[in-house]
Design goal:
The complex is a heterodimer of chains A (171) and B (100). Chain A is mainly alpha-helical. Chain A has 2 domains: 83 residues, NADH-ubiquinone/plastoquinone oxidoreductase chain 6, subunit NuoJ (Four Helix Bundle (Hemerythrin (Met), subunit A)); 41 residues. Helix content of chain A is 71%, strand content 0%. In chain A, helix 1 runs antiparallel to helix 2 and helix 2 runs antiparallel to helix 3. The longest helix of chain A is centred in the middle third of the chain and has 26 residues. Chain A is globular, with a radius of gyration of 21 Å. Chain B has 100 residues and is mostly helical. Chain B starts with a helix and ends in a 13-residue tail after the last helix. Classes of the chains: A mainly alpha (171), B mainly alpha (100).
């Protein structure tokens, strides 16, 4: 067993464990913190795949900005454990578990039958740097990049409008 | 050298955990976090495919997915705040006025 495989397996176990803990905790704050941990683990996996730029924005945008927004909303709404009903096994949940297992078998079947064992090309070593990503982003994908700004503007306006106390309020 | 299928397998497991979370949980915010988990698992498989095929387009797509996820979470959390203000709950079992 080489070192890279040991590192991958450790990270995979950490990611799966934190994801399972995330969906089983009763307190939403605890769930959010496990999800932040999961995002950090995935960022390290991105580094293993030589995607340095994506790893950095995973930590700053996902673990930093988005999860802070989630924690902010959870604490703003003051959601404790007492506000939520006790967990009980319903028929809907058992169907969900069955569907989940079926989906897992389906996807894993394709993942395992995907037998392309070609190693990572040498080109991939320098593909994830900010320089390389910027070269592609601002030449081939410059139009989608500019469209993202309109999307974010629409999201800002929409979020303010939705979270406003009274929609008919002029102020 | 780690085979590509290991990354796809990990991505599949994380995606299924997200699906099960969406289907079983009752708290709207934690359901939303499960959706973020699913987005992340797809990002992981995109990065893996991108690295193993030597094509940076996959990483650009992940960049856009993260941008869209930021917009989506801002709007979604605003909807949850508006919901909480009107119904004083985020339990989706009690929010069924749009149910057929």
């Amino acid at each position: 067993m080489n070192l890279e495989l040991v590192l991958f397996l450790t990270l995979a176990v950490a990611a799966v464990t934190s994801a399972i803990l995330m969906i089983t905790r009763r307190n939403p704050v605890t769930s959010a913190l496990y999800l932040v941990f999961n995002f950090f683990v995935i960022a390290v996996l991105y580094l293993m795949l030589r995607a340095q730029f994506i790893a950095v924005i995973q930590i700053t945008v996902y673990a930093g900005a988005i999860m802070v927004l989630f924690l902010f909303v959870i604490m703003l709404l003051n959601l404790g454990e007492d506000k939520l009903a006790k967990w009980k096994l319903t028929s809907a949940k058992s169907i969900a578990a069955l569907l989940g297992v079926a989906l897992l078998i389906e996807i894993l079947y394709f993942a395992i039958s995907f037998t392309s064992s070609s190693p990572m090309p040498r080109k991939a070593e320098s593909m994830g740097t900010i320089e390389a990503i910027g070269q592609v982003l601002f030449s081939k994908y410059v139009f989608p990049f500019e469209m993202t700004s309109i999307l974010l503007l629409a999201a800002i306006v929409g979020a303010i409008l939705l979270a406003k106390k009274n929609l008919n309020d002029k102020a | 050298m780690i085979p590509l299928s290991y990354y796809i397998g990990l991505s599949a497991v994380l995606f299924v955990i997200g699906v099960v979370g969406v289907l079983t949980l009752r708290n709207a915010i934690v359901i939303f976090m499960s959706v973020e988990l699913m987005l992340n698992s797809v990002n992981l498989s995109l990065i893996a495919f991108s690295a193993y095929s030597g094509d940076p387009s996959g990483q650009i797509l992940v960049f856009f997915v993260i941008a869209v996820a930021a917009a989506e979470s801002a709007v979604g959390l605003a909807i949850i705040i508006a919901l909480f203000r009107n119904r004083l709950t985020v339990n989706i079992d009690e929010v069924n006025i749009m149910k057929w």
